[in-house]
Amino acid sequence: MAGSPLVNDLRAALGDDAVLTDPDLLRLHRKDEADLCEAGTPLVVTRPRSTADVVEVVTIAGRYGVPVVPQGARTGLAGAANAVDGAVVVSMVAMDAVLEIDPVSRIAVVQPGVVNAALSAEVAKQGLWYPPDPGSWEMSTIGGNVSTNAGGMCCVKYGVTTEYVLGLEVVLASGEVLRTGRRTAKGVAGYDLTRLFVGSEGTLGVITEVTVALRPAPAESLTMVAVFPTTAAAGRAVARIAEDGLTPSLLELIDRTYLRAIEAYRPMGLRTDVEALLLASADTGSQAAGDLARLAELCEAAGAEEIYAATDAVEAAALLQARRLGHAAMEKFARESFPGGNGGMVIDDVAVPRGALAALLDGVARIAVECDVTIGVVGHAGDGNMHPNIVVDRADPASLERGRRAFDEIIRLGLELGGTCTGEHGVGLLKRDWLAREIGPVSLRVHQAIKAALDPAGLFNPGKVF
Amino acid sequence: MAGSPLVNDLRAALGDDAVLTDPDLLRLHRKDEADLCEAGTPLVVTRPRSTADVVEVVTIAGRYGVPVVPQGARTGLAGAANAVDGAVVVSMVAMDAVLEIDPVSRIAVVQPGVVNAALSAEVAKQGLWYPPDPGSWEMSTIGGNVSTNAGGMCCVKYGVTTEYVLGLEVVLASGEVLRTGRRTAKGVAGYDLTRLFVGSEGTLGVITEVTVALRPAPAESLTMVAVFPTTAAAGRAVARIAEDGLTPSLLELIDRTYLRAIEAYRPMGLRTDVEALLLASADTGSQAAGDLARLAELCEAAGAEEIYAATDAVEAAALLQARRLGHAAMEKFARESFPGGNGGMVIDDVAVPRGALAALLDGVARIAVECDVTIGVVGHAGDGNMHPNIVVDRADPASLERGRRAFDEIIRLGLELGGTCTGEHGVGLLKRDWLAREIGPVSLRVHQAIKAALDPAGLFNPGKVF
Q1: Where does the FAD-binding PCMH-type domain lie (chains A, B) (predicted)?
Q2: Contacting residues of A for B295, CB less than 8 Å apart
Q3: Is the pLDDT of residue A36 over 90?
Q4: Which residues 304-333 on chain A approach chain B with CB closer than 8 angstroms?
Q5: What is the interface pTM, i.e. ipTM, of the complex?
Q6: Fold assignment, B5-93
């Protein structure tokens, strides 16, 4: 395959270094972090170094009628970046420059391969802040964050990725280079094409440049922990907090399964004898102490058994770190839950209106019993966005079947409660069928019409989303 | 015309009360508030009372191949709601219900005809706040605000309309009813169709329901005024404020022409012997006084001649009221600037990166001299979004020509400075040619492809935007 005319054309255009056909590398680029999703083996992986390189890749692939699958760091959790057999993968990791930081206009212009944490560090040097902080932020790229409209822990107060994307450069299926958006704080010239591409999961074009809005560096925050006798009680606390008009800068839930997984992964002195823990922060400057006290009061009123405030920034950082370790800890826990390290997990990502959070959490507990599976629950409680992680034995078809059923039941419940099948991970392959059910036939036809208008031959990321 | 088959069909479907053909009413619905824009006379004005009514109107108009022009309160400033000859106008003012307010999820579901101020008053009763506050907020409808992605004074801290639109119901050209978005704080299921419709100025469908995000009621704010010897000095103050990491809750500029117009319209004791005034507020609770002091310091460093803080909420409200009166005052000033009340104004709406604001303001002053026109400048300085108002004599072709030249020169300068031809008013008819220049041929083709995908027959609002 390495000598195919397509690969030869790519080599001629990009140089040998940017065109990978080594079988190990092809295998490496088959999939993202989503467990139990189908994936194909690409024909070739390209690593463009410029927009012109991307134009070459898209044009050449288009000429051969071979699908193009864009990839960032492949940390996604829905299979959106999974390759299809014979595809040209466009890995954007070599385009990782921060092109410009403007502290007066509070914007940065970056290439899509820059890692979220690298951009954050760079802007911090100028007293600025790029808020979106998906769990993968130390590895994931801005291009991937934009393509999936990534969320994170700070979103409860500061919003998700799309709120920070002002403009894009995108290579279209035609090989044309589209520039969308602006560098100004406001602008309404034409359709909001920028946000049409944000969250489109690589199905409409390849993003080659991103202009993001920045904020002034955040204020110091104060952090507290409240533990609850049931996850639903924690959910009720979240509703009370919202109703009270408070806007914590962080409001996360960790359930007992997760707490135990984290303690087993790295002992941090978390209580593992409680059903749920809420982690909350306030960054309202001189009012933060008062806001934290009010958060504590509301948690107590909702049935919290114990509340303690972090005594200093170090302790607060440790609590956040425990939350951040959750995914890796839970993966290890799942893996080791079955003989031969065959355990895996299917990760739900439902979001419900905040008022329905307690009902969702009650329902998840019931579904775990009904489907006879272990489900660890963690998530962005303040946004009503929960990640029930269903533990399955990959080697046991019956276990997989039970896990898949629980996965579906949780989404069904989320939709019944007025929610969505994906709060922040995206549709990818994992929730493709659910998307159609959630949005309905009219919206699906509009999606297909827009896809056909921009990518008539179906070149980009076929089989994903819808 | 009243007995045309189209009108008869509309009467049969909606009832006589909802189908207007009185010539005076037809004339009334010809245009919005944009001066000097072309407008046609509609064949009929419909006032649907339900989504089903809108489906009827769109289906019937589509059957006859007659264009459909959606209208709200017709307070727009770009001609986007102007009728075309023989069109069916869909006036959404009778669909003005607030359907639901949910204080826990902090959302409201409304019909598009609800007036912004009415929604604001309604949610305020529950301690909630709908921030977007265009100058027209006491008259304009949420549907119109959504269709133009309206801005306002609070946007410098709280963002524009699109940040608050979670979901929409839209009647498509096919007569199908599309539901977009969600009721949850986060959600990434499929393309962001919601924001594709926000700001699309009635060219893609008729919005029949809007789900908006709300905030807790804002904190009390403190307000100050700084006066400057040049508008550019005020622009430099804005850049320093941004660079310093401050986020005022309001940061408005009023120039001397405007100050004089306001004082003539309603004397408020504003200084009319200065070139520019900055109005700034801080709503950071117990830190507001400190933030206001820092704002004053930065204004002084940028050359402010005098600074005074409002002593109480009443005085602060009066200052804001003076700013809000600007549009009406300037209209009167323009009208009376020429014999026979023939004066009018062409309103620019450029937005530039904050760092370029001083250069824009200097340029506007130069253009006024070069084109021999009076230009009053007012705007959302903190967003870099300025409204230079060019005074013209409608009865004098030479004056109109000089005004049009100044209008174009200001946009040209705005684009050169990295800005946009419209920060918040929209494209409509007024900036249609400039949109094409700003976004370029590739983006224009993408716009046309999306329009064709959703509205293949060009039913909705033909001739607008592009």
Answers
A1: 38-217
A2: none
A3: no
A4: none
A5: 0.96
A6: 3.30.43
* Count of positions (residues) in chain B: 466
Q: Which residues of B touch A453 (CB under 8 A)?
A: 449-450, 452-453
Mean local confidence (pLDDT), A112-122: 98
Mean pLDDT over residues A194-203, rounded? 98
Q: What is the mean pLDDT of residues B170-178?
A: 98
- So where are chain B's domains? 5-93, 95-216, 222-416, 432-457
Q: How many CB atoms lie within 10 A of CB A294?
A: 17
Q: What is the pLDDT of residue A38?
A: 94
Give the pLDDT confidence of B372-418 residue by residue, as tens digits.
Answer: 999 999 999 999 999 999 999 999 999 999 999 999 999 999 999 99
A119: DSSP letter: H
Residues sharing a CB contact under 8 Å with residue B349, sequence separation 6 or more, in sequence order: B77, B78, B385, B386, B387, B421, B422, B423, B424, B425, B431
Inter-chain residue contact A191 with B427, CB threshold 8 Å: no
Q: State residue A1's pLDDT score.
A: 46
Tens digit of each residue's pLDDT (9 = 90 or more) over B19-51: 999 999 999 999 999 988 999 999 999 999 999
For Cα atoms A205, A206, A212, give the angle at the middle one, nearest 5 degrees.
110
Whether residue B2 is predicted with pLDDT greater than 80 in this model: the reply is no
Q: Mean pLDDT of all residues in chain B? A: 96
Mention the CATH class of domain A5-92.
Answer: alpha beta
Give the Cα-Cα-Cα angle B410, B413, B417 (nearest 5 degrees): 140
Measured in residues, chain A has a length of 466
**pLDDT digit string, tens, across residues B114-167:** 999 999 999 999 999 999 999 999 999 999 999 999 999 999 999 999 999 999
Window 211-250 of A: residues touching B by CB (8 A cutoff) are 215-217, 239, 242-243, 245-247
* CB spacing of A193 vs B453 below 8 angstroms: no
CATH of domain B222-416: 3.40.462.10
CA distance B100 to B445: 39
Q: Does A418 touch chain B (CB under 8 A)?
A: yes
* Number of H-type helices and E-type strands within chain A: 15, 18
CB B253 within 8 A of CB B386: yes
Nearest to B447 among A156, A190, A447 (CB): A190
Q: Which of A195, A355, A420 sits opposite B105 (nearest CB)?
A: A355
Query: What pLDDT, in 10s, does the model give residues B182-219?
Result: 999 999 999 999 999 999 999 999 999 999 999 999 88
- Tell me, which fold does domain A95-216 have in CATH? 3.30.465
Which of chain B's residues have a Cβ under 8 Å away from the Cβ of A102?
Answer: 353, 355
Assess contact for A238 and A116: CB atoms under 8 A: no
For residue A378, list its beta bridge partners.
Answer: A254, A387
A306/A292 Cα distance (integer angstroms): 14
Q: What pLDDT score was predicted for residue A286?
A: 87
Angle, helices B432-454 vs A432-454, to 10°: value is 130
Find the mean pLDDT for residues B241-247.
94
Instruction: Please name the residues between 381 and 410 in chain B that touch chain A, using a CB distance below 8 Å.
Output: 382-385
Name residue B440's amino acid.
Answer: G
Contact B155 A216 (CB under 8 A): no
Quickly count: other Cβ atoms within 10 Å of residue B372's Cβ.
12
Instruction: Quote the Cα angle for B452-B166-A255, to 5°.
Output: 130
CA distance B426 to B424: 6
**Closest Cα to residue A118, out of A81, A143, A89?**
A143
Of B191, B217, B426, nearest to A447 by CB-CB distance is B191
pLDDT of residue A3: 73
In three-state secondary structure terms, B375 is strand
- Check whether B1 has a pLDDT greater than 70: no
pLDDT of A380 strictly over 90: yes
Give the orientation angle of helix B357-371 with respect to helix B231-243, to 10 degrees: 160
Q: How far is CA B188 from the centre of its chain?
A: 28
For chain A, the C-alpha Rg in angstroms (whole number) is 22
